[in-house]
Amino acid sequence: MSNIFTDAIRVYARPDDRITGVEAQWITWMLLGRHGSYHVPVVTRRGPEGAYVDIQYGSGKSPDIVNFSQDHAPYLYGSLWGRHYNEGGDQDIIWQGDVNDGPHRYCRYGFDEVRVATTAGDRPPVGPEAPWRRHPDGSWRLFVAGSYRTGNCRYADVGPMATPATPLPDPPPAALPTPTTPNDEGEALTALHPHWLAPLADDHPDVTWIEYRWRGRVVHRAREEDDWDGPAWQHRCADDWDNCLDPDFLRATGATGLLAPEEVYERDREDWEKRGSR
């Protein structure tokens, strides 16, 4: 298998309009085309009162998002956004307007709490001045506003031409629930902010598991899992539009209170430019 992409598309209705359930299904099929979703479950979700619709699918063999973004979205809808993960990479990309010609950049996600379990039960090995709190289950918890970049794969054994009617397989025991379908293979964190949390971006010898949460929901988990060749430190990713902190997305949706510091986005822009020059 190749070209396994995970795509999360959000289509906003015009301010004086709503997207009905029937129309949401029409949009879904416009994206799938005759090729269907390539190894990614299809999920369609309508926002409150039809203000928007979210579609998850795999565009690896389906180019129909190009036609939709150019021939339909500009005339029928308020705006179009997409988050894209390529299994050959390690970070999500966000785009807006046109999948080919619209602006593209790394996608940043937010968290507001970190939970850590240490090997000896001691305080976590970062943030010595931070107000970590010991929980009865032995973990340490810290409420802190932060963000990171990572890759959100939603691959599942649904075949190369999945549709909304394709049955979902039972998730593996170690899969992490997400707002759409479980994640069983994630990426480490990149460009973690605040920077003093960087030692918790991947495995650490003094830590047994790490959770990043957003409004109570686990959006990233890292711990030792059973692998084909024995236990190994692994990541699970459950990021979604609710914790997307892309600056243009937040401004467009009126959620500017969630913006990360400007220097964080400046680093993202610099990293994106370096990517383009390689």
Q: Would you mind describing this structure in some detail?
A:
This protein has 278 residues and is of the alpha+beta class. It has 2 domains: 5-108, Alpha-Beta Plaits (2-Layer Sandwich), CATH 3.30.70; 109-168 and 177-237, no CATH class. Helices cover 17% and strands 31% of the residues. It is built from 4 helices and 13 strands. Strands 7, 8, 9, 10, 11, 12 and 13 form a 7-stranded antiparallel β-sheet that branches. The chain is globular. The mean pLDDT is 95.
Topology, please?
Elements: E1 5-12, H1 21-32, E2 43-46, E3 52-57, H2 64-76, E4 79-86, E5 93-96, E6 104-106, E7 109-118, E8 133-134, E9 140-149, E10 190-193, E11 207-214, E12 217-227, E13 230-237, H3 247-252, H4 262-277
Antiparallel strand pairs: 1-3, 1-4, 2-3, 4-5, 5-6, 7-9, 7-11, 8-9, 9-10, 11-12, 12-13
Q: Low-confidence runs (pLDDT<50, min 5 residues)?
A: none
Structural class: alpha+beta
The portion of residues assigned to helices is 10-25%
Radius of gyration: 19 Å
Gross morphology? globular
- Specify the oligomeric state: single chain
The portion of residues forming beta strands comes to 25-35%
Could you describe the largest sheet, including whether it forms a barrel?
A: 7 strands, antiparallel
Q: Provide the number of structural domains.
A: 2
* Secondary structure tally, helices: 4
Nearest-integer average pLDDT: 95
Order of helices and strands: EHEEHEEEEEEEEEEHH
Task: Tell me the number of strands.
Answer: 13
C-alpha termini separation: 26 Å
